[in-house]
Amino acid sequence: MARVRVTAEPDLDAPTLVEGLPGVGLVGKITTDHLIGTFDMEYVASIECDGVPPVTIYDEDSRDVLPPVRVYADESRDLLALQSDVPISRQATADFSDCFTEWLASRDATPLYLSGLPIEDHDPSTLPDVFGIATTDATASRLQDHGIETPPERGLIGGPTGALINAASESSVDAAGLVVESDPQFPDPAAAKRLIEVTIEPLADVDVPTDDLVDRAEEIREQKQQLAKAMQEAGDEEATQARPMRMFQ
Questions:
Q1: Contact (Cβ atoms closer than 8 angstroms) between residue 27 and residue 213
Q2: How far is CA 62 from CA 44, 57, 58, 106, 125, in A?
Q3: SS3 for 146?
Q4: Residue 120 — very low, low, confident or very high, per pLDDT cuts 50/70/90?
Q5: Cα separation, 74 vs 197, whole angstroms
């Protein structure tokens, strides 16, 4: 059974949540790590369920002990971020998504769910395409107002992020699924930068410095490479990713 364990209750007014579960290109993970570090966000909650490995996380130059799946907050920006250092197992996806969706709804939060679309002929010199889908007409209108494109073809979003979007839709929670073309094998800071600039900044109404995502691209890739390998070994069911439906035809 899943539950959200709150360690601090921030003063927020209809916040925006940015989700960063591990997936293709680790675009969500890189994005939320960047937001949390850039804005020095406060750790406020953890998510506990059978599908989250019982491991301990620690940070450089700190003795703090942290759970593997955490929620951070920035009161001044009305911003939440879901950060995970481990994949969520397939068996726990339904409980995890239902529990977290209920918690978000109780706080009138609007989640932005992030996913990478693997591009085999990845060209790092070109800007990756970005598109968005929505669980409600209100969110669809916001995507339209900010010039965020619709999907170029029929597809699906799998893994825990797909389950979270589905749970939001079933509960009539305003939510967006934001997809960016990304490297299918390696951490992709450039795709995360594009996702931030095209979608996160306008939808969350925040200004996010992103130059260091490019300047530190090699360092970020090295830091995230072990997790990226673990996600590839975990397989499609535990990795967040978007896929064209033609792959199944």
A1: no
A2: 18, 11, 7, 33, 37
A3: coil
A4: confident
A5: 19
The H or E element containing residue 82 is strand 79-84
> What sign does the CA torsion over 81, 96, 226, 236 have?
negative
pTM for this structure? Answer: 0.89
Q: State mean pLDDT over 175-179.
A: 98
pLDDT(151) > 90: yes
| Rg (the chain; Cα; Å) | 17
- The 3-state secondary structure of 6-28 reads ECCCCCCCCCEEEEECCEHHHHH
* CB-CB contact of 20 with 81 (8 Å): yes
The domains of the chain, with CATH numbers, are 3-248 (3.40.50.10900)
Please name which of 69, 138, 133, 130 lies closest in space to residue 103, comparing C-alpha atoms: 69
How far is it, in rounded angstroms, from Cα 186 to Cα 87? 16
Amino acid at residue number 82? L
Residue type at 208 in one-letter notation = V
